[in-house]
């Protein structure tokens, strides 16, 4: 079970860049549920979409799996016969904690394998579905297209990438409004203005949002044939890209 996220509750003299370390792991679920509007809907739908797109005897990836919420949803919905699910994260603390938790999942977890690796170094095998929920946003901008190209090349024809991201609205006034609405959401979830401000500064230069137009154009450039936004709330969205 997740503890309550109090990481930025007290005033910090110096805010260090955000890292997925053991402190974050211990409160991760509380943090993401109270910070990302629509998180539960996106994770739940990841299971449903994997169920639709995954093919029997193929691989499915969960890239940036954290504590396995998306993997859990995919296994709960049920993957086709002989599908293997590879959950990858480069935080050893996340993978260690996930490894311990899987034993308590009340479902058949024999199909899932965990890998502690940077997704930029991962050799992607032929696969039918890739979930990348709120992970691409942490890669330096220049590393995003090469990864998406490798995903597109690894996907079987008709396979799909589900990509969820925090994004930037192209019009500055709308972007400012959506940022305000997101902060209002965080306040309603119990975060103080100090917590919101300190977390924002920790994520500066770590989480780099782009516009939905950028995402769409780059996915098409990477080799996907069709791209659509299926979920959007304030400055968070999820896209489905078909190979
Ligand atoms: C969920 N998908 O619950 N290689 C591998 N993992 C990475 C990399 C990288 N280069 N960079 C960051 N990560 C999850 C939530 S959280 C989103 C994903 C958030 C990992 C990082 O260690 C963390 O576990 C995850 O990506 C991002 O649906 O906290 O906003």
Topology:
Blueprint: H1 22-35, H2 39-53, E1 59-63, H3 69-77, E2 84-89, H4 92-102, E3 112-116, E4 127-133, H5 144-154, E5 155-166, H6 172-188, H7 193-203, H8 212-222, E6 226-233, E7 236-242
Parallel strand pairs: 1-2, 1-4, 2-3, 4-5
Antiparallel strand pairs: 5-7, 6-7
The structure holds ligand GEK.
Residues 20, 32, 43, 64-66, 69-70, 88-91, 94, 118-120, 133-135, 138-139 line the site of ligand GEK.
Question: What descriptive keywords fit this protein?
Answer:
alpha/beta; Rossmann fold; 8 helices; binds ligand GEK; 41% helix; single chain
Give a quick precis of the structure.
With 243 residues, this protein is of the alpha/beta class. It has helices at 22-35, 39-53, 69-77, 92-102, 144-154, 172-188, 193-203, 212-222, and strands at residues 59-63, 84-89, 112-116, 127-133, 155-166, 226-233, 236-242.
């Amino acid at each position: 079970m997740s503890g309550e996220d109090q990481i930025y509750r007290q005033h910090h003299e110096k805010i260090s860049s955000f890292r997925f370390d053991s402190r974050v792991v211990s409160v991760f679920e509380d943090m993401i549920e109270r910070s990302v509007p629509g998180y539960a809907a996106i994770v739940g739908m990841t299971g449903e979409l994997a169920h639709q797109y995954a093919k029997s005897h193929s691989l499915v990836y969960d890239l940036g799996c954290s504590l396995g919420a998306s993997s859990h949803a995919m296994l709960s919905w049920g993957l086709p016969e002989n599908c293997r699910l590879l959950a990858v994260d480069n935080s050893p603390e996340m993978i260690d904690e996930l490894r311990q938790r899987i034993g308590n999942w009340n479902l058949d977890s024999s199909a899932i394998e965990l890998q502690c690796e940077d997704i930029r170094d991962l050799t992607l095998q032929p696969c039918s579905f890739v979930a990348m929920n709120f992970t691409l946003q942490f890669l330096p901008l220049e590393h995003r297209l090469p990864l998406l190209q490798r995903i597109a090349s690894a996907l079987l024809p008709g396979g799909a990438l589900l990509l969820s991201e925090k994004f930037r609205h192209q019009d500055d006034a709308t972007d400012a409004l959506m940022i305000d609405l997101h902060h209002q959401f965080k306040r309603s979830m119990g975060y103080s203005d100090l917590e919101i401000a300190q977390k924002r500064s920790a994520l500066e230069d770590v989480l780099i949002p782009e516009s939905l137009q950028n995402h769409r154009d780059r996915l098409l450039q990477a080799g996907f044939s069709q791209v659509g936004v299926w979920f959007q709330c304030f400055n968070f969205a999820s896209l489905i890209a078909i190979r």
